[in-house]
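Weekly structure sync - notes
Attendees: PM, LS, DV (DV joined late)
Agenda: review two folding runs queued last week.

Item 1: First target. Sequence and structure tokens pasted below for the record.
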Amino acid sequence: MIINVKNGEVLAATSLPDFDPNSANTNPNASNMFNRVTLGVYELGSTFKIFTTAALLEQKHPLFSQKFDATHPIVEGGHTIHDYHAENKFLTLPEVFMVSSNIGTARMAQEIGTNGLKSMFDELGLLKKPDFEIEEVGSPIIPKPWREINTLTASYGHGIAVSPLQLMGAVSDIVNGGYKIYPKLVMNADKAKATNSNERIISTETSLKMRQLLRLVVSEGTARKANISGYYVGGKTGTAEKNINGKYTSDKNIAIFVGAFPIDNPMYAVMVLVDEPHPNKSSYGYATAGWVAAPAVGRIVTSMGSLLGMQPHTDTADIAEPLKQFISDVKGEH
């Protein structure tokens, strides 16, 4: 999916496997007919750390130097929260985001509180069915009742499911300067929301800090394979175990990467989601988003830049550079 983050125009969307619309009734297959972009809802894992981190920055105004205890897993309500690649140390705010620490993000959620986190999710349109021009729109699945453990797990995209459409709308709100957009398929549709919304979700300052963090993920963190030459891309990886019949399965994952570019003043967001990717030799046995989805977004951005005649970044400073003083020797997922 590709969206204009300034006005919400959905410029491209593909759901595979698909079908021939000229012969839709020939050998219909439920999987082929299902619209995963707008109707499907998924636990989108660490991409939700974008919204949790934005909530912390907007509501608590921490310094980038603030540290979060990721020395050991968090045990809450019979659940254990751990990291894919445990750093076993205190992490600065940029480090938590860059290495995609579940523990660090859950610590952020504790600081934000349930009301603060839910308020941000709600303002971003993640807790209700979105208004869209087609009927194939899924409703989010949210914890009911919402307990303290749900606040911690939802902070990193576990136990809450939304559509890719909702994710892209929320990411646009974060990176475009902090203004609410309403995704739409039809230009100037009678029922479409205003193109230029005055509804502010986060401050200009918070939006800038989030763009810096998103750029850091691509330049130094889990999405380095989206770090293409010519354009500064920022984004976030997410790898989530699938919930099948009420149980999470370690061998069936969702791998997703959502990126925005040019990240210093984004115009577009690009998302690739792969359902149940299979590791292979070229991915060194990994099936995580950094190996599966991030490279695909990088290739798409390269093609878009050429097609749109966008001038490459040649002498523009990398907005993530000031954050490097807050990172040390950390691993993170790939």
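Item 2: Second target, run right after the first with the same settings.
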Amino acid sequence: MQTVPPLPDLTIRQLEYLVAVDDEATWARAADSIGVSPSALSQGLAELERRLGLTLFDRDGRRRHLRPSAQPVLIHARQVLGLTGDLARWADRQRTGATGTVRLGMIDAAAVLHFPDTLREFRLERPEVDVLLRVAPSAQLVEWLLGGELDLVVCVEPPAGRVAGSRPFELTPLLTEELAVYGPPGAPSSHPAEWGPWVLYPRGSHTRALIVDQLRAHGARLEVVAESHQPDVLREMVRFGTGWTVLPRSQAELGDRPLDHGPTLLTRQLVIATRRGSVHDPALDTLRERLVAAVT
């Protein structure tokens, strides 16, 4: 019979120290962000290493850097802090009878094009619920979700293999968007070899990863001359002749200055993501149901 090793006696505070060091640029700023002294931060992390029996940091003179091999510990820390925050908010609602706050994250297409009416109707139906909306790229939204800063996000489904470890969140499919290739006015577009150079979403973007994979599969050259998270900026750079781009049709071919209809390159799946195993506010579940209903 295999012997199960004893669980390390870790504290929430130690995990909070680890996340703070990863989030902040310096040790002093990390300590300040969680209201402790640098020496207390150092002692807490040394105790975390002792209890795990692992070295988490490399030393460079007086500076310390989190080792790449420590990523599983960091992912675990973010999950535990997020779920503990969910539990604390649930307990507060039980004590006070408050209806709570929904901390929602959306990519720009979801907030501006696909679900503004759904959010407006939810606010009208549930005026007692505070809805805090943050609009950002998918990768940033997922990071905030896992770190406990958001409760629900609408984002592009992360490409397989691009999220470290097993996915610690639940995904609910919403809708599929077509992404098409757009070139400057008058540019030839009959063959992928004629496409480019490119103005694309930045590196690290879930949509950028999908686009690059498909462009490579089509044999297009991948010279990227400009980047932006803003579809409107990419659209205008195409109009100026800076380069080619790949955008959702809903953002490229609508509005006052649409681009000419381009060939479809791929589709992307928009999903609802929530933390796996979290204690939800009923208002959060209602909002999720409204979002699903809006596309079905």
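Discussion on item 2: The longest helix spans residues 71-96.
Action: LS to circulate a short write-up before next sync.
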